[in-house]
Each structure stands twice: as structure tokens, then as C-alpha cells.
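Fig. S4 source data, part A: sequence.
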Amino acid sequence: MRQPYSVFEKKQRSAFRAPQNAEIVESNGRNLPIGLTVENLRIGGNPIGGGVMEYIARIRNDFKDKFGIPRQSGRVKNISKIGFEPKYRDPQSLRGIEAFSHLWILFDFSLARREDGGWSPTVRPPRLGGNERMGGFATRSPFRPNGIGLSSVRLVGVSHNAADGTFLTVEGADLLDGTPIYDIKPYLPYCDCHVDAAGGFADAFVDHRLVVNDPDGVLRALPEADAAVVRDCIAEDPRPAYKTDGEEYAMRYGDFDVSFYASGTEATITRVRKIQKGR
């Protein structure tokens, strides 16, 4: 299936330009030129405010497939690197970032678009078994009118090399390898942390984890740090909403496929297979 066009690519294909003397009307709380709708703004040319959003960076890590990626950031201590697009590699843009322990990552759900370009106002959250619908804006579903995701990560370090320029190393990102990033902002504990916040239906699943068993020690085929990440990812229960006890699943991490089956509140790892080059 063809990768959907990014917002930036859509601009190149069919940008909308309103005439400078366009009459302004009020539409959905925004001042828009006649003939320019909110939908036009979403899919490409935005003559208001300087143009469309551009990718500033991409993330690199060992999550090569969507299955197995934690559903929320910070739940697994996996390591990722954020490399900037050439236009945004000026090291001055990161001056002072080392003073912050955590960052917000705003990214593009680039593989979660419907072919018809539409969206549904309700979704079936996996944690509710896929049987109950909730409003899309009351969930963190990737299927949204604008596919923007938000991830909170721990900043591990800032590095530089000749090939990538200055890049960030972060921990706890719930992003697929290669995911494009729109923006990076510092996490501010005094205003971003709300210890008395209510988490809606998600509060019931804060402590939901599978007990992961490795009776044959097959995880020893992985480096120790990678084995710990895989174990935690499986403990987070990555199974789809319509799951069946005893069914076997496989998650890819780096150069390995890790197979497991789950029943009740336990998961058992059955094998680890090295992926052939070129796959």
C-alpha cells in the first residue's frame, strides 16, 4: 500500500493560494478568505500564517513494525535518536536544551491515514476490548482529522557527528522508526504535571501488565538491554482488541522477530528469530 502523502508533499502537489485582496469571512471561529475552507487548510496550502507545517526531524530506533510499540510514551525504557532535517540542523536551535530532563515530541501519524482521506468521530479503544466506542477526541487514537501525535520522552543526551549533525538521544518514545517530527518542546514540570488529573477510562488500565515468561531462555539471543525492552513491550500487552487466548504473535525489534502467545494475564515467549538482511 502506498505511503500517504505528507502535508508538506500535498503542498507541493496542489497548494491553494488565496488572492491578496480576498474578502475575509468568519468560518468556524477562524478568519478565512472566501473559497478557503478549514479542509483546504488541513490538506495543503495555507496562505495564513506563513504556510504549512514542515517536518523538522525524524526518529530512529529499533521499532521496525507498528505491532509491539508501547501505546503510551515513557512506559518502556527504549532508546531512540532524533536526527534533524538539513534545514534544521543548526546546533544553535538546541542551545540550552540539556538543562531539561524531558521533552515533548509532536509527530506525524504518517502510517495511520485512511485512503479516502476521511475520519470517524468515534473509535474503539483496544483497552476497552474493541467493543465500546468513544469519541476520537476522548482518546489517543492515531486516526484523527489531523494526524498529530504527542510523546513525552526523557532526554538522555545531545551529540554530534559529521553525517547527522547534532542529534538527540531520548528514552521512552512510542514512535515507529522513521516517524517524522513536527516540533520539539521542553517538558515543564511546574505546569505540565498535574498529579490530581483524572484519566477517564484509561485510569482502569494504569496497572494492566502481562506477566512475561521465558521458560527456554530464548531472549538470551538478544543483547541484554534489547531483551529488557522486548520483555517490557510484551508486558504492556500489545495484542489487538479482538484477541484470542493462546494465539501466537510476533513483534519485531531491531534485527529480531520475537514470538509469544498470551493467555489470561500471562505471556510466554516461544522463539527468537534473526531477520535476514534485506527484509
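Fig. S4 source data, part B ends here. DSSP finds four helices and 14 strands in the chain.
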